[in-house]
Amino acid sequence: MKFDTVIIGGGLTGLISGIRLMQKGQKCAIISSGQSALHFFSGSFDLLNNLPDGTPVNNPEASLLELSKQAPNHPYVKMGESKFTELAQKAKSFLTEIGIKTQGCSHKNHYRITPMGMIKPTWLTMSNFAFFEVGKFPWKKAAIINIEGFLDFNPDFISEAFEKIGVETSIAYFNLPELNLIRKNPSEFRSTNLSFVLDKEVNQDLLVKILSEKSQGCELIIFPDCIGFRNADLLPGLINRLGKPIYLIPTFPPSLVGVSTQLYLKDYFTKLGGVFMLGDNATHADIEGNQVTNLYTLNHGNIPISAKNVILSSGSFFSQGLLADIKQVYEPVFDLDTDYLTDRADWYNSNLFEKQNYQQFGVKTDKNFHGIKNDTPIDNLYVAGAILSGFNPLKEGCGAGVSFLSALYVAEQILIKEKTYEPIAQYK
Known about the structure:
Number of strands: 22
Structural class: alpha/beta
CATH architecture of the largest domain: 3-Layer(bba) Sandwich
Largest sheet: 6 strands, mixed
Distance between the termini: 36 Å
Radius of gyration: 22 Å
Pfam family, one: FAD_binding_2
Shape: globular
Oligomer: single chain
Family: Belongs to the carotenoid/retinoid oxidoreductase family.
Low-confidence stretches: none
Protein name: Glycerol 3-phosphate dehydrogenase (Quinone) subunit B
Number of helices: 11
GO molecular function: glycerol-3-phosphate dehydrogenase (quinone) activity
Helix content: 25-40%
Strand content: 15-25%
Number of domains: 2
CATH superfamily of the largest domain: FAD/NAD(P)-binding domain
């Protein structure tokens, strides 16, 4: 099997880079072991919320100089300030062009509400999800409506968050007879299964009646993200019939927006002609000189996959893109050089909520994000996403941003190399 580019990892990074390359006429394959971290997606992409020293960031674009001083090996710093700014600005256009609408910009963070009712800064938020800027929330009273027995959404937490921004709230619950069929099993009472009931056309009149009654005297409705999975037009239709806005709040994972985003990006990639190898794992590769010549997977055994270029976007420890034993942190497919602290006692902090050093461990790369093996860059192997070293996705609030921007960046490097690059600025 021969491809222009083979991508290891079917999460956000792999799918974005694959779509970008396929748009430019490349023949691509994605090797995906299964469920990715996208299933934990909250409906918002974080770009940069805090500097490594904990200083809050309001304008990510204006923070690169200070970031370069505090974290010189951060993926954003390796890209360079101008390229970071360019890609951060064009990412929204890229999403819009492939049919995903978002709110927000890269020169000013806005705020979102998490499933726990925390107010956090973010970069881009999916349409229909609640977001706000300080002092600019235009409503006075909101109805928070939940399904009876649905524990992945807590109205009390959400109410507290809205009260903090000066919005009065009321809380109400409802039930539909058909929901009792899945309520018997708590493990099945999840957002994806709820949506199969709520999305049915036969239930729409009753749902409109319930929401109308439960939101009397309120200017908007806050609802858990468990609607519109099979029909993207459903929510706009409900809003039109009710005559008031409905804003969604993400639920605990697996989230409906995460699952639907994963499926949407995968379908978009395959409709462009991409090959998605679901349930397979890259195991090892042949490297001759500074080139990956063949790649092998678990399902294909000794049948090699060859490509002009390879993108490693297999994620960090969560998805086993990185592994650790008692002495070291290592990358299992190519045995690339990794950045980690040699004293294992320094890998973690006993306080769970403090900075954990292991979160910034990862694969070493050069400024073009070539993977490095034995101190030498591999010319046709690019590394992107959570597997990169030099950043702390949780404490810095930059995990999605690094995944997204590094995906576009390595795709750009490949297109330049293959002389088929056109600036992303073409997107309107």
